[in-house]
Amino acid sequence: MSQSKGLARIFQPPKSAMQSGRAKSQGWVLVYAPAEPKAVDPLTGWVGSGDTRAQVRLTFPTRAQAIAFAEAQGIPYEAEPETAPAAIRPKVYADNFRYGRHENWSH
Prior knowledge:
The protein is of the alpha+beta class. It has a single domain, classed as Double Stranded RNA Binding Domain (2-Layer Sandwich), CATH 3.30.160. It is 10% helix and 19% strand. The chain contains 1 helix and 6 strands. The radius of gyration is 21 Å and the shape is flat.
C-alpha cells in the first residue's frame, strides 16, 4: 500500500485466532493509511501521532457498499478482491478413537 495522504484500504477482516467460527469476520472494513509516521513523545516515552484518521474504522456489510461510500465521499481507495471463506470441517470427538486413524495419539 502506498503512503499517499487520504488513501483508504477496503478489506475483509481475517478470522481471529481466538475463535473457532467466523463471527465478526463476514463484513468489510474501510481504514485509512497513516498520513504521518508515529513518533515517540520525549516526556512520557509513549508512541503516538497527530493523525486522527488512524482511529477511524468503518464497517460495511458488503464490498460494494464500502466502495460506494468511498466513491461518494471522494476517498481514494484500494479494495481487496472478494475471497470465498474456507470450509470449516466439523470435528467429532469419536474420531479420536476411530479404527485405522493415521494421526498420532496426543496422550
